[in-house]
Write a structure and sequence with these properties.
Elements: E1 2-10, E2 31-35, E3 38-42, E4 47-55, E5 61-62, H1 63-68
Antiparallel strand pairs: 1-4, 2-3, 3-4, 4-5
Length: about 80
Amino acid sequence: MVEQGQSSRSPASNSDGSPSGPDSAIPGGTILEARGDRLRVATGDGILAITELQADGRRPMNTRDFLAGSRLSVGDIFTPAA
């Protein structure tokens, strides 16, 4: 679970130039890119570029460190915390 982090929003398009957003077939929470220091996730309004995050019970970390220890793949979907 991701609790908090720093992020920025991009216009409503994916890394391949295809549309993302309310009229897109890509559901919110879908991972569009997860490599190096780039973690980009589709939202209902566009794309969220995550630069820092904090897993439940862990210290905050930058995206590169998080991805090095995770098994996230393009197409995986983040779900809301219970």
